[in-house]
Amino acid sequence: MSKRTGKIFQWVAIALLVVLAVVLINRYGMATLQAQVERMGVWAPIGLFALRFSSVVIPALPGTAYSIAAGGLLGFQQGLVVVCLSDLLSCSLSFWLSRRYGRSLVGRLVGKQFMDRVDRLSQRHLERNFFLMTAFLMTGFFDFVAYGVGLAKAPWRKFFPALILSIAISNPPIVAVGASVLEGGKILLFLALFGVFVLSLIAGWVRRKEQPVEIEQR
Fold this sequence. Notes:
Elements (H helix, E strand, L loop, with lengths): L2 H26 L1 H11 L2 H15 L6 H11 L1 H26 L1 H8 L1 H11 L7 H8 L4 H10 L4 H28 L2 H25 L8
Helix pairs in contact: 1-2, 3-4, 3-5, 4-5, 4-10, 5-6, 5-9, 5-10, 6-7, 7-9, 8-10, 10-11
């Protein structure tokens, strides 16, 4: 599968998820969906945790979709806890795997079409600049960043604080987008959109900083 085909597949998958969510809400209503989630009990957050975790360790679908789903189905607080915990564990695992086993294992996990992203990120020497590493981890390709920093043999004591800071800043606005649908709060929606706007500015700044090496954001 080519990079272009993979990117098209990702956007199609996002569109299908959005359409499915709209159809379900229109057909059953938000209250009914909430009741279904409540009947699932602990399996609802576990399922979303597993989906988000797997999308980071084995990049396939954009993880943003699962963050929005977590906020929409679980509410802001519980959804944020699930997403943050998933990102913390999955990115830590990705970092450890790449540092422990190197390119051969990473290539099998991310796929050959995405391995060049990991290689180029590892060549950026992000471990030398804490704030630049944090900024990269706040973007949509943070899963590749975790692998790339691990391949660069960055020390754990530098990576982990950057990971925590990036998760604390970047996850709340995305989860709040989904939660605003569930909770119907205009203030929450405004803050969510403002946070997403700030994240887009950070992503644009990161793109300028990493040139001339070009990395596609998923």
